[in-house]
Design goal:
The protein has five helices and four strands, in the order βαβαββααα. It is of the alpha+beta class. It has one domain. The radius of gyration is 25 Å and the shape is extended. The N and C termini lie far apart (83 Å). About 9% of the residues have low confidence.
């Protein structure tokens, strides 16, 4: 039986020739492009909003999301909304240029964060997104008092 292996076999008395290491890791991690899948526009002047975004940013998968603090003025030409609209509620822009806001935006964020994907799946149930949006609108009404910024 002949050896069909392409590796050279050492002759008697010779040391085996070291082979270069396989450049492909055993468990390659997915490589994400530099451009985020979504860009989130949030009100960094809202302490509650800022803490939530900081929490999300520490999670696996957060590198797939761009985070833009509209209150800090770092959105520049990247934000497709006027400042007042962008500060009024959470918005995001998908890589294809389409926009989402409110509960729909949260679901888009959750889809990209491993610990939150189950919430994104639940949001697909009939009526769930509508219920989440109603809850988010309720939150927006009391947000100024929760954040210590009544009237703004």
């Amino acid at each position: 039986m002949s050896d069909l292996s392409s590796k050279p076999r050492p002759q008697a008395g010779q040391q085996p020739v070291p082979q270069p290491a396989d450049p492909t890791p055993a468990n390659p991690r997915p490589v994400h492009s530099k451009r985020p899948e979504i860009t989130v526009f949030y009100d960094g002047g809202c302490g509650l909003c800022r803490r939530e975004v900081a929490f999300y940013r520490r999670l696996d998968g957060a590198g797939r999301i761009g985070w833009t603090d509209v209150a800090a003025g770092d959105s520049g030409a990247a934000c497709p909304l006027d400042r007042a609209a962008a500060l009024a509620r959470l918005h995001l822009q998908r890589a294809d240029g389409s926009l989402a806001s409110g509960a729909e935006a949260f679901v888009e964020i959750w889809r990209r964060l491993p610990g939150f994907r189950h919430l994104a799946r639940l949001a697909r149930l009939p009526g769930a997104l509508r219920l989440l949006e109603a809850g988010y609108r309720g939150f927006l009404k009391i947000r100024p008092w929760l954040t210590g910024r009544p009237g703004g």
